[in-house]
């Protein structure tokens, strides 16, 4: 079976290598073009293997589509695709296209599925391999896999520790099912669908008056991107690594309780947040206690 892989970054590369290891005839790849003089990992892996590469954005014009069609694919495997691809391109392979999505569809359609699952306080998520159609993550389901969201998980830990390796395995299994003619097309229950927008700064502001678990979920659901933020002297401070300590403390929410060399503690409504890593506006991430010392933040200061 002639397979083309469309994707990017480490996940796209891992799926490309896995399908080749599985014995699939990978005849082409599509990835973002070079940026800053560097090739995307999928692009670089395909080029090193002597596999033709078409820039993903080129698939939106006739020249790119002709180059893609010339590969004569039986199946397109979409591993981490962020561009909107014309439906005609997805229908071009003889057996169609299959796509990875990091949620249990129809929940959390959209590009920030992991972020919102954590922000909303879910204790479980997963991945879906589906047959894309003209909608956004609305196509029939081929297979799904579930995984837990732990109380201290971030977007980074859920993705890299679970959904990345699970996704490579799932894409391999899905492609094998297509090759064997056993791949299902299970319609999604659209009445249960949720769709959230890309998680951006407008969604990431910390409201210190909210319950502790909600504040903590927001910070974890924005780590590492876009980074939950608060303001200090008119500038934005992004908060990344942190923990709820299990303590209770009196006073107003947002009040700094203590500062040490590496961390500082903030009183929340229903708990205490130990902040371990922050990023001042325009600077690199640094230990939270180090930033507090530099900024003159002492116990009694209040974030608002």
Please describe what this structure looks like.
This protein is elongated. The protein has a 7-stranded mixed beta sheet with strand order 3-2-1-4-5-6-7, with helices on both faces. Strands 8-9-14-15 form a 4-stranded antiparallel beta sheet. It starts with a strand and ends in a 9-residue tail after the last helix. It has helices spanning 9-21, 41-48, 62-69, 87-91, 113-119, 155-179, 212-221, 288-295, and strands at 2-7, 25-31, 53-55, 75-79, 97-101, 124-130, 141-148, 228-232, 235-239, 242-244, 256-259, 264-268, 271-275, 277-280, 286-287. It has 8 helices and 15 strands. The chain is α/β, with parallel strands linked by helices. Strand 11 (256-259) and strand 12 form a beta hairpin. The protein folds into 2 domains: 2-192, Rossmann fold (3-Layer(aba) Sandwich), CATH 3.40.50.170; 201-295, Methionyl-tRNA Fmet Formyltransferase, Chain A, domain 2 (Roll), CATH 3.10.25.
